[in-house]
Amino acid sequence: MRLERLSLNQFKIFLTFDDLIERGLTKDDLWHDLPRVHALFHDMMYEASDELGIELEGMLLVQVHLLQAQGMFVIVTQSGNHHLEYDDYVEMKVTLDESRELIFYFQDFEHIIQVCSHLNEIGMNGGTVYHMDGRYYMRLHDYDVQGYNREHIIAILSEFSNPSIVTSYRLDEYGKKIFNNEAIEEVNRLFK
């Protein structure tokens, strides 16, 4: 579990699927086993409180974003209402969101060329490639992988890259698009 303080009253938690498994949860449990999910959030809030030195009280707004191949990140915002009758009571409003897109980062552009070659061999041609903060990112939308074995695509991508917790919103805002929408096809056309 990784923690990052975003502001005085907001922080982010990132958990990989391995972190969830270590805590005895699967991805399906997040949608179907409410008591275990409640216990997970309770534990995460106390860990974050200890590690970041934040006094959690009052209303917490919790946004949970499930990332297809990477895990999940949680943004917690503490509201300004700190005056409650019960000292140890924390109320959470939880919003769940699942991203169906795949985002992987590459250290070297050569690895993108290799991935695109393998993905082109199975008939894929979509995707968008970005450059940001010295790394290359490939983003595949749900429609890019529709009709293909998703796990097989993740395996190919994982061979040459790492899952990214950077959101598509951040890439669109701060990244430089190198190839838009038909990245696999364009990379293969230019570098084969």
UniProtKB/TrEMBL annotation:
<comment type="subunit">
    <text>Homodimer.</text>
</comment>
<dbReference type="InterPro" id="IPR008681">
    <property type="entry name" value="Neg-reg_MecA"/>
</dbReference>
<protein>
    <submittedName>
        <fullName>Genetic competence negative regulator</fullName>
    </submittedName>
</protein>
<comment type="similarity">
    <text>Belongs to the MecA family.</text>
</comment>
<dbReference type="Pfam" id="PF05389">
    <property type="entry name" value="MecA"/>
</dbReference>
<dbReference type="InterPro" id="IPR038471">
    <property type="entry name" value="MecA_C_sf"/>
</dbReference>
